[in-house]
Write a structure and sequence with these properties.
Number of strands: 5
Strand order of the largest sheet: 1-2-3-4-5
Order of helices and strands: HHHHHHEEHHEHHEHHEHHH
Largest sheet: 5 strands, mixed
Structural class: alpha/beta
Shape: globular
Distance between the termini: 46 Å
């Protein structure tokens, strides 16, 4: 997934319309642009048609339409324009051109507006997080063909590195997963184990971090999160979720499942045969080494210099996810409220 840069497409004044049946030879091909070859099975092609409104016969026309919109509306965005890259954004927004364009803009704005997370973003830079087991991907897919991302906050020791390192590790994990066309169509599932999360550790996840992370996952990254399974959540999770809930869209909020220590409840969402023993499964001990090795071996996939995405005054878009930033006083008030809720849960 190396982000190469290609010349912008032709006539920026062309009107973008919905595709109609016609010869694919009419599509302009950018010089040296990698030719897209679909890797989806016939079953997933049918699923993408039904669920994402993706029509194989129109696919390249749709990509070209999005490319032309970028060139016309955001000529200074500095984005990759190859077919495979743009297709991720179309799939994530069910081939709605306007929503896919906004997602693409958000994606780049997020990357340049949070330097603590996106500077020097590569697997080797977050090796301590990977070795801690804070985030990994289970070895088996679920019954819908989705990868399961396992997050374990208890593996993080705040004195070792800041919370932003954990966010970097999660982001790189998602970037690696979304390279797969299967994941683009099927989406992912999250399994978050809050066992042993203390009050002091929970307080690191304040309103600023909350808003940023949820903004990225909902509106700034081309991935479909189909379910979030929470297990072993302590009483303080009520306080944590009270902070998170206002930032969640209703559709996403309905995909949160709180199982507590009831593994039979978890197994109704994720079958035991894909789960490690730690979660009542039959897939052996939780293995973090396989995913770590895969991600660390993918260093070249992330050689994407985002320095050219620095904010400018030339009409480039401002970060739409942080417009009306939480001011310092509001952050302080929200943090005090969070701590009050957390203490009341004890």
């Amino acid at each position: 997934m190396r982000f190469s840069h290609y010349p912008m497409s032709g006539n920026a004044d062309d009107t973008i319309t919905s595709p109609s049946v016609g010869s694919l030879s009419e599509i302009e091909v950018l010089p040296d642009q990698p030719k897209y070859v679909c890797s989806l099975s016939a079953e997933l092609v049918a699923k993408a048609r039904e669920q994402l409104q993706e029509k194989p016969e129109w696919r390249l026309r749709d990509v070209q339409a999005l490319r032309d919109m970028v060139c016309k509306d955001y000529p200074n965005l500095g984005t990759c324009l190859d077919d495979a890259f743009l297709l991720k954004f179309l799939r994530a927004r069910k081939f709605d051109y306007d929503r896919a364009l906004q997602l693409l803009v958000n994606y780049h704005c997020c990357r340049r507006s949070w330097p603590e997370v996106f500077t020097n973003l590569k697997p080797s830079a977050i090796k301590p997080v990977l070795e801690s087991g804070f985030v990994t991907v289970l070895s088996h897919l679920d019954t819908e063909g989705r990868h399961v991302v396992c997050i374990r906050p208890d593996r993080w020791t705040p004195s070792n590195y800041p919370i932003t390192e954990n966010i970097r590790a999660i982001y790189l994990t998602l970037e690696k997963l979304i390279q797969s066309e299967e994941t683009q169509v099927n989406g992912i599932v999250i399994l978050a184990d809050y066992k042993g999360v203390s009050l002091s550790k929970a307080s690191h996840f304040g309103p600023f971090i909350t808003k940023k992370v949820i903004g990225i996952l909902q509106d700034g990254f081309p991935i479909r999160i189909k379910a979030v399974n929470i297990v072993n959540e302590p009483r303080i999770f009520k306080g944590i979720f009270a902070v998170i809930r206002p930032f969640l869209k209703e559709k996403i909020a309905k995909r949160f499942f709180l199982h507590g220590s009831d593994l039979s409840s978890l197994h109704r969402n994720l079958p035991p045969w894909i789960l490690p023993e730690e979660y009542g499964g039959t897939a052996g001990k939780l293995d973090i080494s396989s995913w770590n090795e895969l991600l660390l071996a993918s260093e070249d996939d992330f050689l994407y210099d985002v320095s050219h995405l620095a904010p400018s005054n030339d009409g480039s878009p401002h970060d739409p996810l942080t417009s009306g930033e939480i001011d310092e006083k509001q952050c302080d008030d929200s943090l005090r409220s969070l701590k009050t809720q957390l203490y009341s849960c004890y």
